[in-house]
Amino acid sequence: MSTTTGEPPARGRNSCISVAGKPARTTTLVLVAFAAVYLVWGYTYLAIRIGVESFPPLILAGLRHFTVGILCTPYFA
Do residues 63 and 55 make contact, with C-beta atoms less than 8 angstroms apart? Predict the structure, then answer.
């Protein structure tokens, strides 16, 4: 038989993270994150559209892999 009351354990005064005190900062961060996703996805679709019209599929795939390899080389070297 359990002796717990179902309440969470008591914590210190500063243990809870509250964003209610800073709604403007949170709203700004959400808008910046949304704008970043919107721009990255938008440019990705634009690049795919231009690539499909300009290059054969295998060359486009090779260019994509080559570009990622060049960009990621400093991180894995």
Answer: yes
Specify burial of residue 15 (Cβ count, 10 A radius: 0-12, 13-18, 19+).
exposed
> How far is CA 45 from its chain centroid?
17
Q: Could you state, in order of their start, the residue ranges of all structural domains in the chain?
A: 23-76
Cβ within 8 Å of residue 19, ≥6 positions away: 26
For the stretch 33-48, pLDDT in tens is 999 999 999 998 998 8
Return the SS3 of 76: helix
Q: Give the 3-state secondary structure of residue 38.
A: helix
**How does residue 16 score in pLDDT terms, banded at 50, 70 and 90?**
low
* Nearest CA among 69, 51, 68, 70 for reference residue 60: 51
